[in-house]
């Protein structure tokens, strides 16, 4: 049992450092929080966390090894992720300020089911289609977790990582949508969108150069 506790702490620590590091997920939540409002940001955060379950699933069932061992398959995943981030970045660059009314911190304009579903899906796809996340989870499960560790315990590790991911980004969403903070950023929301677009395009370019090796 002590071995599993030690293993869990190592896995949880590595994941925490990874999830708080700036990346496409953080860029998305930053933009959603400051431009769209709390409701959209929180649902995007939940989508990001649910995306973690996809990575955990293919690591547990060995599909991840197939991706890692096949340059062609990895290239497909890589280019899908890069194209999606490119599309998100382009949408930010071409957005108009008028499409983002001030509203309140909760984002009144985002209260419909369609907006909620769209926010969740955006977060989910941003995480799932990120090859860097794929490589991280494959490395974590292949090098950080003993193959003899029961699948049930490995699944618990995955559940923990998904929950921590959601909690972290929901926390970021709440902080960034504080009325005082958001009111200041809304004055420069157009430039926030533009900067986020540039950052996402930069991540897209970096992903095209990612290697499975």
Describe the structure.
It is a single chain. With 213 residues, the protein is mainly alpha-helical. It contains ten helices and no strands. It has helices spanning 2-19, 24-36, 38-60, 63-69, 71-93, 113-128, 131-144, 151-176, 179-186, 189-208. The longest helix has 26 residues, at 151-176.
Helix content: over 70%
Task: Provide mean pLDDT, rounded.
Answer: 79
Q: Please give the count of helices.
A: 10
Largest sheet features: none
Output the structural class: mainly alpha
Q: Strand-residue fraction?
A: under 5%
State the end-to-end distance.
33 Å
Given as residue ranges, the uncertain stretches (5+ residues, pLDDT < 50) are: 98-104
* Morphology call: globular
Provide the succession of SSEs: HHHHHHHHHH
In total, the number of strands is: 0
In angstroms, what is the radius of gyration?
18 Å
Tell me briefly what this model is.
This protein has 213 residues and is mainly α.
Provide keyphrases for this structure.
213 residues, mainly alpha, 10 helices, 79% helix, 0% strand
Topology:
Blueprint (H helix, E strand, L loop, with lengths): L1 H18 L4 H13 L1 H23 L2 H7 L1 H23 L19 H16 L2 H14 L6 H26 L2 H8 L2 H20 L5
Helix pairs in contact: 1-8, 2-3, 2-8, 2-10, 3-6, 3-7, 3-8, 4-5, 5-10
């Amino acid at each position: 049992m002590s071995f599993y506790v030690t293993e869990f702490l190592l896995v949880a620590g590595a994941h925490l450092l990874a999830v708080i590091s700036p990346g496409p997920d953080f860029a998305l939540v930053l933009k959603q929080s400051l431009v769209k409002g709390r409701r959209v940001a929180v649902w995007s955060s939940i989508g990001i966390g649910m995306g973690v379950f996809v990575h955990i699933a293919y690591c547990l069932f060995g599909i991840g090894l197939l991706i890692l061992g096949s340059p062609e398959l990895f290239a497909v995943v890589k280019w899908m992720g890069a194209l999606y981030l490119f599309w998100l970045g382009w949408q930010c660059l071409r957005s108009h300020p008028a499409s983002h009314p001030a509203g309140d911190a909760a984002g009144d304009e985002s209260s419909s089911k369609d907006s909620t579903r769209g926010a969740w899906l955006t977060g989910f796809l941003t995480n799932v289609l990120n090859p860097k996340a794929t490589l991280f989870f494959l490395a974590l499960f292949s090098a950080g977790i003993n193959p003899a560790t029961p699948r049930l315990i490995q699944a618990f590790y995955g559940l923990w990582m998904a929950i921590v991911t959601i909690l972290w980004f929901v926390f970021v969403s709440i902080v960034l949508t504080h009325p005082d903070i958001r009111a200041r950023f809304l004055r420069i929301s157009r430039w926030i969108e533009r900067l986020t677009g540039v950052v996402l395009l930069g991540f897209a370019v970096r992903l095209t150069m990612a290697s499975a090796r």
